[in-house]
Fold this sequence. Notes:
The chain is α/β, with parallel strands linked by helices. It is 45% helix and 22% strand.
Amino acid sequence: MDTWKFYDITHREHVVCNPTSEEKLARLVELLRLPTNAQVVDIACGKGEFLIRLAEAYGAHGLGIDISPFHIADAERRLKARASSAGITFTQMDGADFRPDERHSLDLASCIGASWIFGGHADTLDALIDMVKPGGWVIVGEPYWLQEPPEDYLEASGVAREDLGSHFSNAEAGERLGLNLVHTIVSSRDDWDRYEGLQWYATEEYARSHPDDPDLAEVVERVSKARAAYLRWGRDTLGWAIYMFRSRSAA
Length: 251
């Protein structure tokens, strides 16, 4: 079935499409202290919540990019309802293809939970560094291993051991590239339970209201397998954090 239809179904109850609470997203927005009319880009913006909050808090201008037509449609509806006059645009495209009009021109560049777009965590940081001004923000969200992952979990989840590092190595990757790590916003088990559990809930609701969807059986099977893997292994094995890096100011 269509990948983005699957994620639309399973994330219909989510405001934030990653294991971060709205309270922690609010903390992130508050800590950024952007200048008025800051220029920003959010790659893999999901439903646009982060970018809309930046517009509400700071009058930020910029672009939200996502490859999912469903999420872009959601983001545009939310923007119209809450900040229709903001200088924010949402665009459906592959985030890897985005280039700002000028290098090192943005106050903030983010990619929260989609480092696969650029080929991994370090490559994502490298791409975002090229977009921001000296002293600008580079914001990423990335999972990490809480413990050595069981082989059964790797097989069930389709994740390779080398795909992820530790919380320390995620932080160190930015510092190796010349970024300053300012803060991390680490998800709790409750954050994870909410993120995963809302997918189960959304799938159940969709099954009740769309019993004739030819893709329903596949959706239910995939979510069932993911639920079992999360409850058996993932809850104790996988962590998540948003990393707040700042580009070093020019000397």
